[in-house]
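Could you join me in thinking about how sequence relates to backbone shape in a protein? Would you write everything just below, so we can both look at the same thing?
***
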Amino acid sequence: MSSVGDATSLRGGSLVMTPLKGADGQIYAIAQGNLVVGGLSAGGQDGSKITVNNPGVGRIPGGATVERMVQTPFNETDDIVLNLHNADFTTAKRVVAAINGAFGAGSARAIDGISIQVASPRDPSQKVDFTSMVENLDISPADSAAKIIVNSRTGTVVINSSVRVQPAAVSHGNLSVTISENPKVSQPNPLAGGNTAVTPQSQVSVKEEANRAFVFKPGVTLDEIVQAVNKVGAAPSDLVAILEALRSAGACARNSS
């Protein structure tokens, strides 16, 4: 939930009983409870203020009570459809193979990379028992796709273990350009008949950090990526820039093992 008024922080707040409506305008749940807020805000009497994340947004874990049943075709069809949480054709194929191996050929078939159709008993009680046996089958899911998740709001960078880097060289440093103005005033002597003039005088200096370059070998692991980036003292924003540059160069790849 979030504030739609002028509240500066929801930390320590509590949501009063609130109806949750669906797209059809019907109430399906009632929410209430204490808020969990990840942000904070503090200020002084002189008007100075500091804010971390967004203190006007919070969550209520398990704070909703369902009031209306949602219609389900579970007891009205001769089969059940299993949906994978993450679409993957390899995992769908392995699920079909496991079900057919346990209940006979033709018991299950993959509709696409997400859905698997499984023939089941018509009787509701038998269908529940059958579904229980299906969900207890051991399945080896496919390796997850290589993902790099960046949260620019909190500065969080998450890299899963499937990320591999092709041969690449990285050099990351900051270039600082400083321009200072020291104007000089030219004052004529008394009775000289001249005018006071201001002569601009600028000084430009350039400074670049002497960060060393490092080389990624073929197929380096997640640990090696993090260690290499930490060696140059990169902040989260610098890490994001390095990862984006590696992706643009085609050096980021999925684990092929």
User: Anything to note?
Assistant: The first strand starts at residue 14 and ends at 21.
